[in-house]
Design goal:
The protein is an alpha/beta fold. The protein contains 11 helices and 9 strands. The protein has a 5-stranded mixed sheet. Strand 8 (239-244) and strand 9 form a beta hairpin. The radius of gyration is 21 Å and the shape is globular.
Amino acid sequence: MKNVEKYERGYYMPPVKCMKWAEKEYVDHAPAWCSVDLRDGNQALIIPMSLEEKLEFFTKLVEIGFKEIEIGFPAASETEYEFCRTLIEKNMIPDDVTIHVLTQAREHIIRKTFAALEGAPQAVVHLYNSTSVAQREQVFKKSKEEIKQLAVDGAKLLIAADCTAYAYANMHQEFMKGKITIIGCPKLDDVDYSEKLTQIISNNNIQSVTIVRMEVPCCGGLEMAAKKALQNSGKFIPWQVVTISIDGKIME
């Protein structure tokens, strides 16, 4: 490889060693698996799956044992919409299974998505903004700042260390549900998040801030950055810090 000197080390060890996770002899509880085959797998096909094929695929995923299944983008097409409605109306979703759907942060698409979910026992809605230049200029017809405003206006903000979702099985249900989520890792990114977080909090109508971190020392940087941002914003916003232990439990 030429010009190797221009590349810098991309990882940094924590200031205090914490290897308890590596000392475990076995995994003591199963991770939370979410199948995305019905969306990502379908997008990879030249000829997308029909309604009947989607229903058969969903049944197989349930049979395999998945408890969280991303079923697609209900507002994207009539087939996607009917697939969601059929699962609900024919009671094909077991009580212990949660379906996931996606929607852009555009009012008419959000409305159709929630119409598709009416009657579902439980669901996770992934709200996102397309940030590419083409999407921003041709679809949304908005500036970068206006796109950011779509995402965070009136939001409950979750600032989480990237490893928390792996350590805590109910991360989606207990913390991410109903919140705009920002993921970071001070150890790997080696940046000061406080400046960007200050901008986000200062320039938007944030209702509350929840910080979820691991008990390991390197997560302290994320907590400190969030607290600094709250202070620098000059706003009084309710906030809390939740710490997850290395064995996947909430610490009191």
